Amino acid sequence: MTDLGKIKRERPCNRRWLLRHGALALPFILVGIPARAVERVGSVEDVKGEAFAELDAVRRTLDRAAPVFLADEVVTGVASRLGMRLGRNTTMRLGEQARLKIDRFLVDAGGEMTLRSGPLLFDRPQRSAPAGVRIRSPFALIAVRGTQFFAGPSNGPFGVFVARGSVAVTSAGQQVILREGEGTDFVSPGTPPTPVKRWAPQRIRAALASVS
């Protein structure tokens, strides 16, 4: 028999061997592939314009009632707004061209987020239990104390304003405590917060309008 004939005769056997032994080996191959657990932490309440969530280099469009997952980076477009609820009591509103990364979140027990750009309004009911939420930005670290506050561009600089409750704002080794009606500004990333002052009504209205 020629070598060619031998190869043709053995080819089905080789195929059967590969199918049988490949199937046995498949579970062991899959074990070596890391699987990422996707944890849902909230959902979208309303959207105006365009909004997306980016997770592991995959972008999905956010519509009303869409889920929000841990490690999502939530993004809004030009002239867009987004409202979402995290856990049972935390509401977040984003203005246009905002980027918010949900780094860690435990339902009603706190978490960490990164505001990369754009305006944000954080809100929790007045009588809800305190939550250890921290929000980082290129300008400051904001430690939340069960409150409603605004953070983002305001009259030019990046500002933080408290409508209810209090927050601790830290940057460049300095910290200020803001209470109801008070705010602070940052000239540029890495600079300390300006002295605490009460914001004028027109500035408050403009800041809140940027996220509503």
Percent helix range: 10-25%
State the secondary-structure class.
alpha+beta
C-alpha-based Rg, rounded: 25 Å
Number of strands: 18
DSSP helical segment count: 2
Distance between the termini: 83 Å
What would you call the shape? globular
Quote the average pLDDT. Answer: 85
- Largest sheet, order of strands side by side? 4-1-6-7-10-13-14-17-18
Q: H/E element string?
A: HEEEEEEEEEEEEEEEEEEH
Largest sheet: 9 strands, antiparallel
Q: Unreliable segments (pLDDT under 50, ≥5 consecutive)?
A: 1-8, 21-35
What fraction of the residues are assigned to beta strands by DSSP?
Answer: over 45%
Keywords for this entry:
212 residues; alpha+beta; 9-stranded antiparallel β-sheet; 9-stranded mixed β-sheet; 18% helix; disordered N terminus
Question: Can you summarize this structure?
Answer:
The chain has 212 residues and is of the alpha+beta class. 18% of the residues lie in helices and 46% in strands.
Care to describe what's here?
- This protein has helices spanning 3-31, 201-209; strands at 40-48, 51-55, 58-61, 67-69, 73-76, 81-86, 90-94, 99-106, 110-117, 120-123, 132-136, 141-144, 148-153, 158-164, 166-171, 174-179, 182-186, 197-198.
- It is of the alpha+beta class and 212 residues long.
- A nine-stranded antiparallel beta sheet has the order 4-1-6-7-10-13-14-17-18, with helices on one face. Strands 3-2-5-8-9-11-12-15-16 form a nine-stranded mixed beta sheet, with no helix packed on it.
